[in-house]
Amino acid sequence: MTSSHAERRAMQRALELAATPGVPLGPNPRVGCVLLDADGGTVAEGYHRGAGTDHAEADALAQAGPAARGTTAVVTLEPCNHTGRTGPCAQALVEAGVRRVVFAQADPNPVAAGGGETLRAAGVQVEGGLLADRARELNRVWTFAVDHGRPFVTWKFAASLDGRSAAADGTSRWVSSTAARHDTHRLRALCDTMLVGTNTVAVDDPRLTVRDADDRPLDRQPLRAVMGERQLDPGRRIFDTELTPGAETVHLRTRDPHAALAELYARDRQHVFLEGGPTLAAAFVRAGLVDEIVAYVAPVLLGAGRDAVADLGITTIADALRPTVTDVTVLDGVDGEQPNVRLTMTPCPGPRQEGH
């Protein structure tokens, strides 16, 4: 049996519900659910509001009450099959008397997967894969983290036209424009972890926070992570919790990118925003652990200074890593500043990547 027009329309609505503004981007996936009656009319809607709250199916069932019996549940993710902070949604749908379930993305999490089979075993009609690509894109970071067993890594850097992130005397404020810095904070807010190396903390003393256009910290702050074995001064601003209440900091005492990501994944972190210096960036690139590159290019020539990335071991142009550009955006200048360009790229696997 194939999905009906009403079910497709309901799935589009369920995806909208899943993307409701204000819903946390992790650690749980964003999920929406619509219950339809036999004529394709909407009985109830629901969506997941973050870890510890009702799942989308439970939310919709609660809204419907007894009217849920005999309905079709249209869900953006395969109903879960395990008991965590909440009960298994597959069993809740069975107990509510739902007749049919249509889901988009199959659950890639081995702990929660199998809901479709549980439903079928209980006599419920099940159809999977409707608008699955859109559902995966909605939760692309969560899906990646589950599939790969590590966080998704976005490497961000700002550079001059000649690839310098700082001048010869070490000064780097400001290579990028005001608009580029505001855009960086927007991207930071989409991640759950910001990662730098110990040298960046020792030399630049960053706050590593997410702030608004008026330089005020947002209520929700990603984890501030520092990677490296170097002992750090506890007076550095990254360790200051009074400056930014609610911001947490962790020191990952390793130089191995694989080990650092494993520790962050164990902390339920799924999206790392890599903002370290050229050495840390090179370590992640060489390890094949960069999944997205965001580069801000400023119309500035320095001629000398700190490179945006350190030695990658490339000695000939044939071995150059050539990321695929997925977006080019011109960020208009503010108060007379020149425009900057933001390039978003997907790295291509290359010969320099090191196994682990």
From TrEMBL:
Reactions performed catalytically: 2,5-diamino-6-hydroxy-4-(5-phosphoribosylamino)-pyrimidine + H2O + H(+) = 5-amino-6-(5-phospho-D-ribosylamino)uracil + NH4(+); 5-amino-6-(5-phospho-D-ribitylamino)uracil + NADP(+) = 5-amino-6-(5-phospho-D-ribosylamino)uracil + NADPH + H(+)
Regions annotated as coiled coil: none
Name listed for the protein in its UniProt record: Riboflavin biosynthesis protein RibD
EC number: 3.5.4.26, 1.1.1.193
CMP/dCMP-type deaminase domain location: 5-127
Pathway(s) this gene product operates in, as recorded in its UniProt entry: Cofactor biosynthesis; riboflavin biosynthesis; 5-amino-6-(D-ribitylamino)uracil from GTP: step 2/4; Cofactor biosynthesis; riboflavin biosynthesis; 5-amino-6-(D-ribitylamino)uracil from GTP: step 3/4
Natural source organism: Nocardioides koreensis
Family according to the record: In the N-terminal section; belongs to the cytidine and deoxycytidylate deaminase family. In the C-terminal section; belongs to the HTP reductase family.
Gene (UniProt): ribD
Cofactors demanded by this protein: Zn(2+)
Keywords from the named record: Hydrolase, Metal-binding, Multifunctional enzyme, NADP, Oxidoreductase, Riboflavin biosynthesis, Zinc
Co-factor note (free text): Binds 1 zinc ion.
InterPro entries with a match to the protein in the record: APOBEC/CMP_deaminase_Zn-bd, CMP_dCMP_dom, Cytidine_deaminase-like, DHFR-like_dom_sf, Eubact_RibD, RibDG_C, Riboflavin_Biosynth_HTPR
Known function: Converts 2,5-diamino-6-(ribosylamino)-4(3h)-pyrimidinone 5'-phosphate into 5-amino-6-(ribosylamino)-2,4(1h,3h)-pyrimidinedione 5'-phosphate.
NCBIfam families linked: eubact_ribD (TIGR00326)
Xref: SUPFAM superfamilies: Cytidine deaminase-like (SSF53927), Dihydrofolate reductase-like (SSF53597)
Keyword Phosphoprotein: no
Domain of life: Bacteria
